[in-house]
């Protein structure tokens, strides 16, 4: 016979669990990165280490990225050379440029997940973004060392920054409600990573889809 204390627990056990996608983040770089996710938080990943977290279906504007050159105290406060997110280890918002982004929105129109890699916020670490369930196998990769030949005006410590941040001009920033075209800088990014967004209106083979509730793997330095 259920007691007064146990009955609510039994009822909770009968409720359906909220649907979510599992993200597995792996650091294959030869150096330490501080993985960041919004939503998700953040964690230090030495070479070969991984981090797993769940994201609820219906989430929009999610992203995963690597931070480099970080130093945090025992309370998780500090700063990073690239990808810094408010000076905390466990991110609650987006990171500062430059940072290579794995972006996604889950269980959206048509019951699909939409995901991509973006260099619109610049580049700091190579990454791949791959589905791992639901029979979905196609995802983008940006494995090139974009920093190696970064155009001189975009070169910053630890990365290759985006031209909007550097110049602030409309042709690079694509203000809301307007459209923009490729530039010499976006063409550099596109040449290095053809599957990644190189500027805000770059929809040439850059958006990928999977059925909702698919799981994903993000690899730094694939």
Describe, in short, the structure shown.
This protein is 12% helix and 32% strand.
Structure commentary:
The chain has 222 residues and is mainly β. It has one domain: Thaumatin (Sandwich), CATH 2.60.110. It contains 4 helices and 15 strands. The protein has helices spanning 7-14, 163-167, 170-173, 184-192, and strands at residues 20-27, 33-38, 41-45, 50-56, 62-67, 71-72, 78-79, 101-108, 112-118, 127-131, 141-142, 155-156, 159-160, 208-211, 216-220. Strand 12 and strand 13 (159-160) form a beta hairpin. The longest helix has 9 residues, at 184-192. Mean pLDDT is 92; it is low at 9-16. Residues 1-20 form the signal peptide. InterPro entries: Osmotin/thaumatin-like_sf, Thaumatin. This is Protein P21-like. Belongs to the thaumatin family. Disulfide bonds join 29-221, 70-80, 85-91, 142-193, 150-160, 164-173, 174-180.
Q: What Rg, in angstroms, do the CA atoms define?
A: 19 Å
In the predicted model, the low-confidence regions spanning at least 5 consecutive residues are 9-16
The number of distinct structural domains comes to 1
Q: What top-tier CATH class fits best?
A: Mainly Beta
Give the helix/strand class: mainly beta
Overall pLDDT metric: 92
Order of helices and strands: HEEEEEEEEEEEEEHHHEE
Helix content: 10-25%
* % residues in beta strands: 25-35%
CATH topology assignment? Thaumatin
Top keywords for this entry?
mainly beta; five-stranded mixed beta sheet; disulfide bond; fungicide; 15 strands; single chain; antimicrobial; globular; Thaumatin; 222 residues
